[in-house]
Amino acid sequence: MQNEANSVGGIVARLQVPELHSGHRYLIDFAKARHDRLAIILGETGGYPTDHDPLPFEMREEMVREMYPDDTIDIKPLEDDPISHERWSENLDALLRTQYGDSPITLYGGAQESFIAEYTTKTYPTVAVPLINPSSGTVIRNKLLRPRSADAREMLIYEHQHRKPKLYRTVDIAIISRNRGEVILIGKNKHAGLLSFLGGFAEVDGASDEADVLREKNEELPNVSAGQIVYLGSYPIDDPRYRKGKDRIRTTFFRTNYESGNLIPGDDADHAEWVPVEKLLDVLVPWHHILGETLQKHWWDR
What we know:
Largest sheet: 8 strands, mixed
Structural class: alpha/beta
Order of helices and strands: EHEHEHEEHHEEEEHEEEEHH
Radius of gyration: 28 Å
CATH topology of the largest domain: Rossmann fold
Distance between the termini: 80 Å
Low-confidence stretches: none
Helix content: 25-40%
Number of strands: 13
Number of domains: 2
Mean pLDDT: 91
Oligomer: single chain
Shape: elongated
């Protein structure tokens, strides 16, 4: 097939897969055969990697270059627009105009799932190409099995060595009785007799920190009823599980008044007991000392 003189074919895709499948290759070959140059525009979230978008632009560019080293193919990133398809379409037009000026451009996408429906400016003509393998990247990612090779382990180590530090968010709560001058703490066998406040990791689908901390309380002491929770602050936690790495934990700390119930531990707690507030720092795990000091400081706050 003869190329249209000085024309450009464009493909907009995410290509969040371990390798180009036959449908990707067919689409690239289809567009490449019809134009002097081919622009492959790879969508970017602008955020950290996720299960939906695990591969950064550089890795996807390498994947395409391994199969298509041609100097007639340009590969460019385009960040998603969080506001509207119109703004994203304008950004796509601006990228192509900057790269190719007034050259005639035709954009290609798959007939089943592609960017075409979201391309609202229609500045450049689009062609929906029936693909021989229309499997989406999501379907492919969901079918992946854990690779068992030195290369896979090396890749995982590299990823953790070079990614940005993560901040893990937790919630903790002190259940107190001012009349007794005591606090309920929980113990775990692995902590060699030391105790901690009730708490755990914030949930992705949690409605709020308050909801998360009440869930933790109900899991660890399901028979205890407590009053309204009071926010005491947020604090860095020197959790030994993350001490040697670059990731960190920050907790949101609450206080509530004990109302009733027996200290029968539920999930993730081996026992529970009342501890005098002045003895907190003697029995708490070291990484909860900052919370113990905070509670002592705000013991009489309303």
